[in-house]
Amino acid sequence: MPKRRTLPYILLGLIHSNQQMTGYQMMQEFKHEISDFWTASHSQIYPELQRMADDGWIRPLALGKKVASKRNQTYYQVTTTGEQVLTEWLETPLTANDDELFPLKLFFIDDQNSKLLPPLISRQLELSTERRNYLRHRMTTVFPNQTAIQAHYGHYLTLSRGIERESNYVSWLKKLDAEMKR
């Protein structure tokens, strides 16, 4: 089954968070804010905006203000349908195949009391704990002794780093989860 396209949800989240935006402003958001965990190019964003407008998720507003380039920019606003689509995406539970979406979903939750936060954090905690436990099991299976470690030391180091990364992620998520339950 093909993966669901993610870019439209990112664009919906950006427009929703800012009430209205131009394609250029969205590119700047990708460049300065979102690039730490997702990238998109000019050639991806503008066709996607057109598809979203065609689908009724966003609407172009009347040609906007003059900008520095002396061109009119089109501002986009999320429609009621787009709001529903964004909410459904944010509410859709993560799976082991798409948990890389966690930071994106988290990015678009503006209110620390949002009902979306606890299940999102809890689910990511489950997935990360499973991954950490799997990596720990792999370590004992693949590297049962010092001879095995020495024979494939780079692999051992890579696996060790993966366990450390997931363990730190699990610790951070447990802290967030506890805060949500207060």
From TrEMBL:
* Protein origin, superkingdom: Bacteria
Ranges for the Transcription regulator PadR C-terminal domain? Answer: 102-179
Q: Where is the Transcription regulator PadR N-terminal domain?
A: 11-87
PANTHER family associated with the record: NEGATIVE TRANSCRIPTION REGULATOR PADR (PTHR43252:SF6), TRANSCRIPTIONAL REGULATOR YQJI (PTHR43252)
Full protein name: PadR family transcriptional regulator
Protein's organism = Secundilactobacillus folii
